[in-house]
């Protein structure tokens, strides 16, 4: 579902470019964020170990990734590639992470 939503976003941006309303960006951003939030529990379920330590490590890695991602996006990606280019690049990164989590076998 997430990959289809990303594909829809990219198709609309390529076809209409800057003519898309702000509500489109807000709506797709919200929907993608909700679906990406659902990815963390799935990844957590597939991590080896079930103790508090493994949960804490996964959560701290998630927070560090979010902080670094926000910094890199705001300082480098948006200024150099624009919002649309940054969004498409980040969608490709998210698709790769979905494939990695989906292909990982439960230990």
Topology overview:
Layout: H1 2-16, H2 22-37, H3 39-45, H4 52-103
Helix pairs in contact: 1-2, 1-4, 3-4
Could you explain the architecture of this structure?
This protein has 107 residues and is an all-alpha fold. The longest helix has 52 residues, at 52-103. It is globular. It starts with a helix and ends with a helix. It has helices at 2-16, 22-37, 39-45, 52-103. The mean pLDDT is 79. The protein contains 4 helices and no strands.
Features:
mainly alpha; 84% helix
Q: Could you give a short description of this structure?
A:
This protein is mainly α.
> Would you count the extended β strands for me?
0
Number of helices: 4
Secondary structure: helix percent: over 70%
Q: Could you spell the SSE succession in H and E letters?
A: HHHH
N-end to C-end Cα span: 25 Å
Summing up helix and strand content along with how strands pair, one would put the structural category as mainly alpha
Strand content: under 5%
- pLDDT < 50 stretches: none
Shape: globular
Largest sheet: none
What integer is the average pLDDT? 79
Rg, Å, rounded: 16 Å
């Amino acid at each position: 579902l997430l990959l289809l939503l990303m594909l829809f976003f990219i198709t609309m941006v390529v076809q209409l470019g800057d003519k898309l309303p702000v509500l489109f960006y807000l709506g797709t951003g919200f929907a993608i964020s909700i679906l990406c939030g659902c990815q963390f529990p799935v990844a957590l379920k597939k991590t080896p170990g079930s103790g508090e330590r493994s949960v804490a490590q996964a959560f701290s890695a998630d927070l560090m990734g979010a902080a670094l991602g926000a910094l890199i996006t705001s300082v480098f990606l948006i200024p150099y590639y624009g919002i649309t280019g940054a969004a498409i690049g980040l969608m490709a990164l998210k698709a790769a992470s979905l494939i990695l989590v989906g292909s990982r076998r439960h230990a």
